[in-house]
Amino acid sequence: xxxxxxxxxxxxxxxxxxxxxxxxxxxxxxxxxxxxxxxxxxxxxxxxxxxxxxxxxxxxxxxxxxxxxxxxxxxxxxxxxxxxxxxxxxxxxxxxxxxxxxxxxxxxxxxxxxxxxxxxxxxxxxxxxxxxxxxxxxxxxxxxxxxxxxxxxxxxxxxxxxxxxxxxxxxxxxxxxxxxxxxxxxxxxxxxxxxxxxxxxxxxxxxxxxxxxxxxxxxxxxxxxxxxxxxxxxxxxxxxxxxxxxxxxxxxxxxxxxxxxxxxxxxxxxxxxxxxxxxxxxxxxxxxxxxxxxxxxxxxxxxxxxxxxxxxxxxxxxxxxxxxxxxxxxxxxxxxxxxxxxxxxxxxxxxxxxxxxxxxxxxxxxxxxxxxxxxxxxxxxxxxxxxxxxxxxxxxxxxxxxxxxxxxxxxxxxxx
Length: 416
Ligand code: NDP
Prior knowledge:
Elements lengths: L2 H4 L10 H21 L9 H7 L3 H20 L3 E7 L5 E6 L1 H18 L5 H8 L1 H22 L16 H7 L6 E2 L3 E2 H7 L1 H20 L6 H19 L8 H4 L5 H15 L1 H8 L5 H30 L8 E3 L5 E3 L3 H4 L3 H15 L10 H25 L1 H9 L10
Antiparallel strand pairs: 1-2, 3-4, 5-6
The site of NADPH dihydro-nicotinamide-adenine-dinucleotide phosphate (NDP) has 17 residues, from helix 15, strand 6, helix 17 and helix 18.
């Protein structure tokens, strides 16, 4: 296929175009540093101090070791190979799915270190004490990585993201120019970053907060810290273990990989999603059985909606639930409008948002700071719904209008 036909010029800008991309590139890292500065116990230094500190080689060695070991695990540990969706050049990429073996190995190493160090776990203490420094390292690492994939996208006749080929350097670098940047034929940078270094680091940061409490409180545990660790670990490992579900998500099928995703996956997820645990490690609260039950009930409700609706759509798409009512589209596929998918167009987002609220509630009403996550997540899901609506109405035309008549609510039933 001719290069121009394969990779048409992008004319529609998102996130406010090049100016919006520049503002977000500056704002998001500053926001991440500032919000974490609020929760850095004892010595709070100036931003210049942290920037100078980042020249310390041990931080770089630790972060790069973490990234490389996970990459090695991704390449070497056993798993199955699955096909991604058919791309617009007619090709299908193969993905190695080995989240289970990677997770089991990580948990085994943690258990072994616990035994060998008699619960001291110096690695977790290092992570806790260098939290902000490592956050800054990960920001710089994301910048390097997005420059690497941007330059790489000019090599050969590679498949670009439809939204990332505007010709404006800053915008394309930010939004992601290449659709599926890979090293060799099998190491998929985007899928790897979405699931491994950031998600598993988030799990370890939470654990480091619980561990910090444990070693500083005479080897005792705190219920709010245990709860946030359990709730988020469930979500993290659910994502890592069900990685094949990601192969059909917009991030993998449509979005390019640039600074937005690199920063989101490597910095924003681990260093801001762990905010509740960070907060509780400096300001612990005893929740007791009633508040714990309330939070657990909200999480279970959200998780049930999120999980069963996503599973239902995925099974339906595989042809496993033929009895459910659906609209036959002219494109040949069907739009499900039964069961969960008759309640709202993105009932899965609603479940996901309830989960986010349950996490914030583990800090109870001590501070509005930790509720940033639910507010941010609501904005993210709203923006995602708008993007998806645009995509689907272009893709399905009149069939999408029919679908919207059958399922009028977008996310929250009877509200929006
Ligand atoms: P959806 O799972 O809602 O998928 C949207 C796509 O599914 C559409 O583009 C369309 O694709 C297809 N589709 C939509 N409605 C129907 C229908 N009724 N019948 C059949 N196909 C339909 O959204 P996402 O991929 O954005 O999200 C998946 C999950 O990931 C969600 O639960 C979300 O909450 C979660 N998520 C979590 C994030 C986090 O940071 N924690 C970030 C982003 C998402 P097509 O027809 O082209 O196949």
